[in-house]
Amino acid sequence: MRLYKRRGGPTSADFDCICGPLLRQQKSASAGHFPLLRCSSHSIMGSTMYETSEYRKRVFTSTTCTQQNDSFGNVLYGAGSDLIKSELGIYGEKFFGSSSAYVQSNISRYISNPQYYFQVNEEYVKNKLKVILFPFLHKGHWMRSADLAGGEFSFKPPIYDINAPDLYIPMMAFGTYLVLAGYFLGITTKFSPEALGVQFTTGLLCWLLQILLLEATLHSLGSGEVPLLDMVSYGGYIFVAASVILIARIIWDYSFHLVTFFECFCMGFFLIKTMKRILIAEVRSFEKHSTKRNYLLLSMALSQIPLLFWLGNVGVGAK
pLDDT of 159-179, one tens digit each? Predict the structure, then answer.
């Protein structure tokens, strides 16, 4: 910087001071020092290229191995999943197939076909009501009529057999009982939705108790293969007697006890005849436990007394 501070401009000494290093570098370049630099640069570049190629080889090799491992794992996973699916499918088919067969066999044995119990006509309903209300006047046999169709043994439907159970009469009798109970509550100034609901609940409880009583009687005698809907039908016939009792109370309230005892006798007689038929013909356990059977049938007949008095006492406790 002192060059430009002088007044006369740069001198030769200043030129040597500034340009000397440049000239010495040029002479050293002509003397062959730059080839050394070029060689070192070539070696550096070569080593760099070698390292790059080695890195690419390692990356390619690791990528290839990873892809092979992934493909091998996918094959194993696919084979394992297919094996598991096939085994689960076979096991599920066996399990659900056997379960569905078991359920169908038990449904057909204990519940049967609901449509069977509604194959009725007017003639059957009239004759069946006569048998329920006056069973001691029934002159025919109490056995059910059987039929052989397609190599299978089956009972004839109610429309062709007066002794066959049905669900039409029990359901209509239950509805009639509720209508008569509501009418009786109305003429005694005790009607209310709550009181009618109490009678509905009472009717269902009596129906359930009757079914349990019949089932317990049959199971005590060693028979448990009677369809459940048969027991529901036999248990629901009690509402025919209960409807007659309510009609008698509507006409003349003082006839309640007399009519109730009469209907208890009729229902007991009907159930004894029905249970004997089931034990003899349908279950074939009549010869076993004869003394026990008689006591159980008698107790079943006597149990109709509290049930019918319970159903006939409409409006008790209603305000």
Answer: 999 999 999 999 999 999 999
152, β-bridge pairs: 149
Joined together, the tokens standing for residue 269 give: 């007689």
User: What is the DSSP secondary structure assignment for residue 137, as one 8-state letter?
Assistant: G
CB 167 within 8 A of CB 118: yes
**0.85 exceeded by pTM:** no
CA distance 182 to 314: 9
State how far the Cα of 107 lies from the Cα of 227, in Å rounded to an integer.
9
Length of the chain: 319
Instruction: Write out the two tokens for 301.
Output: 């007949």
Q: What is the mean pLDDT of the chain?
A: 75
Distance CA 91, CA 78 (A): 20
| Residue 14 in tokens | 């200043």
Sorted by sequence, the CB contacts under 8 Å of residue 219 that are 6+ apart come out as none
Measured CA to CA, the distance from residue 190 to residue 176 in angstroms comes to 19
d(CA 104, CA 169): 27
pLDDT in tens, 42-68: 444 444 444 444 544 444 444 444 445
Q: What is the pLDDT of residue 96?
A: 52
3-state secondary structure 206-223: HHHHHHHHHHHHHHHCCC
Closest CA to 180 of 241, 244, 246, 257: 246
What's the number of CA atoms in the CB half-sphere (13 Å) around residue 211?
16
DSSP state of 280: I
Judged by DSSP in three states, 230 sits in helix
